[in-house]
UniProtKB/TrEMBL annotation:
Stored PROSITE patterns: MPN (PS50249), UPF0758 (PS01302)
Originating gene: radC
GO molecular function terms listed in the Swiss-Prot or TrEMBL record: metal ion binding; metallopeptidase activity
Entry protein name: DNA repair protein RadC
Keywords carried by this UniProt record: Hydrolase, Metal-binding, Metalloprotease, Protease, Zinc
Organism encoding this protein: Sporolactobacillus shoreae
Length: 215
């Protein structure tokens, strides 16, 4: 006989993804075909913090929850804990224009202009980096959609962009300024801040358009 609660929970995870699914339905999928609303409701009522602290034995003592399900739930929180520790260890935080310049220092050696973006958490930790394009920077080529599409996908709180000047002179051009203004405007509409636009020159020289007043 089909378990409707379990099947609906699986459908929600498949459609919305685990990050957008309810805690009760995530628990239903972890428990498996024997999940029922009474058990998952009781567990979700405890809240994530309390659930994360429960041992396998403590989970087994919850009426209706078997050993296998208890191990699955405990393992899920154990994996989440390890991922969180890994993320804290590996993430690079942006605190200043110098941090941005350091992060994008490899662009100094590119022979053509490279326009890259990094996507940040609410605490300015780097989530991801993406090359937007290579070529001559032009406001008609750098469309804000290409920058912010990835920000929306990653649920990023902020964006920082950077590009290099192969000439070695990081002085912003009129095109650099126009691109920056368009990105700032789009970010405001989406609620995603453009924190800075850095132009990378040679010998570790750079210019922050935020410091120049364009962000």
């Amino acid at each position: 006989m089909m378990n409707e609660h379990y099947e609906l929970a699986k459908e929600e995870l498949a459609f919305y993804g685990a990050e957008n699914a309810s805690l009760q339905n995530i628990l239903a999928v972890l428990i498996g075909p024997k999940a029922n609303p009474s058990i998952t409701g009781q567990l979700s009522a405890l809240g994530i913090d309390r659930l994360a602290d429960l041992s396998i034995e403590e989970l087994r003592n919850i009426q209706g929850l078997g050993e296998t399900a208890a191990k699955r739930i405990n393992s899920a929180f154990g994996l989440a804990f390890k991922l969180r520790k890994f993320g804290k260890k590996e993430s690079y935080k942006i605190r200043s224009p110098q941090d941005v310049a350091n992060y994008f220092s490899n662009l100094e050696h590119e022979q053509q202009e490279c326009f890259d973006a990094i996507y940040l958490t609410t605490k300015n930790a780097v989530i991801s980096r993406k090359n937007i394009f290579k070529g001559t920077l032009n406001s008609s080529i750098v469309h804000p959609r290409e920058v912010f599409k990835e920000a929306v996908r990653l649920s990023a709180a902020a964006v920082v962009v950077a590009h290099n000047h192969p000439s070695g002179d990081p002085t912003p051009s009129r095109e650099d300024i126009d691109v920056t203004r368009r990105l700032v405007s789009t970010g405001k509409m989406l609620g995603i801040d453009l924190l800075d636009h850095i132009v990378i020159g040679d010998e570790s020289n750079y210019v922050s358009l935020k410091e120049k007043g364009y962000v």
